[in-house]
Amino acid sequence: MRLSWNEIRSRAAQFATEWANATYESGETQSFYNDFFEIFGVRRRTVARYEEHVRRLDNSHGFIDLFWPGVLLVEQKSAGRDLTAARKQAGTYFDALPERDRPRYQLLCDFQTFELLDRDEREETRFALADLPQHVEKFGFIIGVQRRTFRDQDPVNIEASERIARLHDALAESGYDGHDLELFLVRMVFCLFADDTGIFEPRDIFLQFIEERTSPDGSDLGPYLARLFQVLNTPEERRQTKLDEDLARFPYVNGELFAEPLRIPDFDAEMRQSLLDACLFDWTAISPAIFGALFQSVMEPAERRAQGAHYTTEQNIRKVIEPLFLDDLRVEFARLKTRRDNRRIPDLYTFQ
Q1: pLDDT tens for each residue of 335-344
Q2: Which among 63, 72, 61 has a CA at the least distance from the CA of 36?
Q3: Over the stretch 280-298, which tens digit does the pLDDT of each residue have?
Q4: Alpha carbon of 345 to those of 3, 4, 10, 338, 340: distances in Å?
Q5: What is the DSSP string of 275-298?
Q6: According to DSSP H, which parts of 72-204 are helical?
């Protein structure tokens, strides 16, 4: 269970006090960020790494001070240094990274000043170390809490649905269809999200498993996926002691998503590549509304018309439900939150 915001703010205040006199980049950066991640109850080494080597577009080489693929890039300077140079340096690193690793967030820091950039929202927040408790919620992404941007018919969502649709069509044409195909695709979408959003750790283990353990011709991909499904459905303490180490890295997924046995699909090289193309896509930016687009994209046109199925964008859904009840709920929540703050009731739940 993640920490409450009250606890996080308390830890942030303690961190600001303990690091009030930090100044030296080379000597204190790693300790500084190990402690910073502990504010959120997260061990830094489980998500981010130091001194990530990057070959820039001009063929020069550099090292990112702290790098969390797809999430955060940090450039750290000694106290009092101009952060303009750090901003330029971070930009060259960002441009040189593979698209799937480019982070949403960029942090420039000199121990005493923070400049956090949210690239998706184009929002920059600057504050002093002493004010960290007042701004700590800006770092909610560290614990998986962040504002998501939902855009009507976002091209990213459309591209994601099309990649899954191509995989669907290839499997259907090969004779793998019906309930087995539907459930197989749901499992694939879960694995793609999990591989990019921290459910599977480290990031990209699903992609690596497909790339490194299956044959280029796709002949053994189906059996490997069937074995993976069994592993995902088995608690760690019940797994066999001789389980393949690459499979053992995957976590147990409860809820019985992977419980039902399926026919094992047959793949060829082109179908395997369709799955890899879906793996290479960055799923962190996808709206949950993507599931509507996915279901629409894999239905036959005749079936879609017969059932009246049509993907309704999140923007249009909100136009209907917000005036019906969401606006009133927000007002009521604000009222209750004010009463809670006035009474100093512990912050047990945070509504996003």
Answers
A1: 665 665 555 5
A2: 72
A3: 888 876 665 555 555 554 4
A4: 16, 12, 15, 10, 5
A5: HHHHHHS-GGG--TTHHHHHHHHT
A6: 83-96, 132-135, 155-173, 178-197
